[in-house]
Fold:
Amino acid sequence: MPQVTFIEHNGTAHTVQAVIGKSLMEAAVDNAVPGIDADCGGACACATCHVFVAPEWEAKTGTRNEAEVAMLNFAAEVKPNSRLSCQIEITAAHDGLVVHMPDGQH
Structure:
């Protein structure tokens, strides 16, 4: 299983095992990572799983779809590397993935 690291706004890191085929958001929820609320359960209908993908991982996590762009309009601190973690499907290539969480999400 790939290991992924979620870094809180205060620098606290949470490295978890992610299941291939599940979403990055599910990896956070399954491992009780604080700051990933996932209020909509992964339906891309909220922005409570907002993360910043580390620059070296952007190419491996894909691009935003229209629904994701629309939901990010409701998120705080949106940056060019902002993603909804529910829209990133874990693959073997994500072993070592690092994402950061915004300050407003804790």
In short: Residues 3-100 form a domain with the Ubiquitin-like (UB roll) fold (CATH 3.10.20.30).
